[in-house]
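2 proteins. here.
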Amino acid sequence: MMSTKFTRTALFISSFKRVPCLSDNSLRRNLSNTSSRWAEVGFIGLGNMGSRMAANLLSKGHKVTVFDVNSMAINTALKQGATNASSPAEIASKLKTIVTMLPASQHVTEVYNGQAAKICNNMLLAIEMIGVSEAMNLGMKLGLEPKLLLEIINMASGQCWTSKVYSPVPGTMENVPSARQYSGGFGTALMSKDLGLAMDAPVSGGVGAAQAGTLTFMVGGGNKDHFDRAKGVLQDMGKNVVYCGAAGNGQAAKICNNMLLAIEMIGVSEAMNLGMKLGLEPKLLLEIINMASGQCWTSKVYSPVPGTMENVPSARQYSGGFGTALMSKDLGLAMDAASQVKAPTPLGSLANNLYKLMVNSGFAPKDFSSVFQFIQGAAKNK
């Protein structure tokens, strides 16, 4: 399992149940037993990808509450039938299922850390409450008088806020919920809400697939049962929803895919540039490649050569799509992971260096297929 790093495609989906889990600075929830079909969904992040994904949820009948720092994106979502929240915290406090689609690691951390301190405290509080309850129950079964046992705990090393201020045992403390049949106080459902499970579900397919609802989700975290409960919401935004195993495995699958995608994009760009310099007509060359053994997703669906394919970034001066800066960041994550597990990635390393150079050469906001344009420019400068 790779160590989890938040990327722009981190997507957490959650709801309530009683399976406590908190790790990796993530806001955790639990997946409910109820069907996620037509669930109420909180959606944080309405950029090029998120806005289209939220629109698909709305079109499939979900009630969607959205948050984004961009007021224009919010207004567009409202016109499509969404409601808006004033903050991520408001979404977290009201909804069982939350999806985040954010630009970069720091944005993911900001959103989830807004609740992290509260959740960490409540996780410890829950552990203490269970521990005090178990210890008190054991002592009482061994014949100890409850008040005396609690007094001893509070003079010894087992003392904690729960034992000193909020005893769970009726008759041992006044003015606490246990003294009034557990009424009032902090509800069990609310505690369950703060102890939960997040699933990382990075996506592949780009803006076009987000628009068409044909994204591929690579899901990590929880178990197969949790995945099955989350799948309904994810299927309403994508075509392929694949369970990858433990938390972080979704991200691992994504960076492996994107490393290969970058290598393929560079390969297609180099081959097309070479063929054009040898006098071949671009459309004909691409057609030949797609009938031969050099074909790949890039050559068939996402040509980097202007004039060879419609409705792709190369047809609109490399605008939209998956930014070069984002591809460079994913390649950096892949190289970090490769270093951790000592996996040789010679072509991945070259792709990483090339995309870094592109970012430093002004290509950062362009789609990553602009590597063809970069290669052409490099050839002209020789």
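next one coming up
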Amino acid sequence: MREDVYQDLEGDFLAQVEDILERTTLKSQRDKQLQTVMTTFERENLTCCIHLGTYEKSPRLLPCLHHLCDDCLTALMRNSITFRCPLCMKKYMVPWKGVEAFKQDPRLMSLRNKLKQAMSNRRTTLRQLLHSALLPW
């Protein structure tokens, strides 16, 4: 099921970028639209829903498949035996190992780093961006 989530994420992103490539002829307008798509993608998929910052290290994956950063997950679990996912409100017992009990998701971090690198590299062509920013499934 988790693989499907990543494939959908990749497919949606690719569809948006391909749409911009096909519809827009002016380079400056295309670059602006691509930057908007990238920023939206990062905000919606690579941002902690609690502190609203981008993940600085691999986020933790909850059983409901939502991600949280270590610090926010630790704060959620502090002084309690249960906590709720802030997105779907599913209730979980605080594991004996704490945050470490939840697996990190390095693929999400890898995607974020590749997108950042592609966005900051002015010499990267759009086709290179598509092939370098997205992970092979």
